[in-house]
Amino acid sequence: MTNFSEWMDHVGTAVDAAGVAVIVVGILVATIESLVQAPSSGLDRYTVYRRRLGRAILLGLELLVAGDIIRTVAVAPTLQNMAVLAAIVVIRTFLSFSLELEINGRWPWQSKVSASE
Hints:
By secondary structure, the protein is mainly α. It has 4 helices and no strands. Helix 1 packs antiparallel against helix 2.
């Protein structure tokens, strides 16, 4: 069983590393694209940059949450670790909703039509 726990710990760490890599690469790509390309959607560069950056951060946060879940559930499923995981998930979910509101101007559960009214 120790071998499984160690393996899951490595998997969780790899998923965390992927989350950080997505955020860093997303920042670089969003910055380079904003400097090189003119926005084709009719929006200003700043708005397009913020949306690209926000999407990269959202994806990275999802991977970081997945890594935490893997390590907590598979490696050390104690009550204290589960409580810490719950707090982390709540905070990151709040961040995700806030970023979604910033990117799209509406809550994730709102339809596109109601946001423009």
